[in-house]
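Quick note —
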Amino acid sequence: MSCASNPPTRSLRRRQARGFTLIETSLALIVIGVGVLAFVDAQRAFIEQNNWSSRSATGALLANEVRELSRHLPKYDPVLGLTSGNNNAVVGWGAGSEKIIVRDFNCLTDFDGKVFGRDGNMPGPVSAAGTVVPMSDANGVQQLDGNGDAKALEGWAQSVTVEKIDPLNFATVRAKGYYVAPSGNDPGVAVDQFPLRVTVVVTYQGTYDTQPIEVTRLVWITP
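Predicted structure written out below.
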């Protein structure tokens, strides 16, 4: 009688058909989850960088629009000039009530303290032509409001500051009526002969932003 035994085929099949354990499945889910989270985070970072690059370009453009708008203007009003009146009151600095729109500005100091855009003196940022910059869609088509007029660029503002500075130290700001009286051989410095420093700050406030964010700051000096 033969003593040979049958091979353990049933046990072998059972071992071959064994599936994933709970630990293996959990580890696989963790690896996949970490990969998905890393991909989502990278995508978010890319979108934020892309948005910031677009905003930086827009901010630089809006700042230079103000510079181009004002660069051909004299420092002070061509008619009034700049004088110190009674009680050191300064005449000829800033836009008077008769200068309603940007195109009425005829000197650099008319821009001092003006805000073009959000909560400012104009419904939106201004261009080098003195007109409001319109809002456009991705195809470059201007957006219209309910009256059929072009919508101003939303969320953006240009804040302008003009300061009189010391000719020997551009970091020193002088009062608007400041002057240096003649003394001996020193002819002094008249009230309207000081250089001016112009600062344009461009800010943006999105729909969900609690406050405006500075995007660009452009500074230049007019001798």
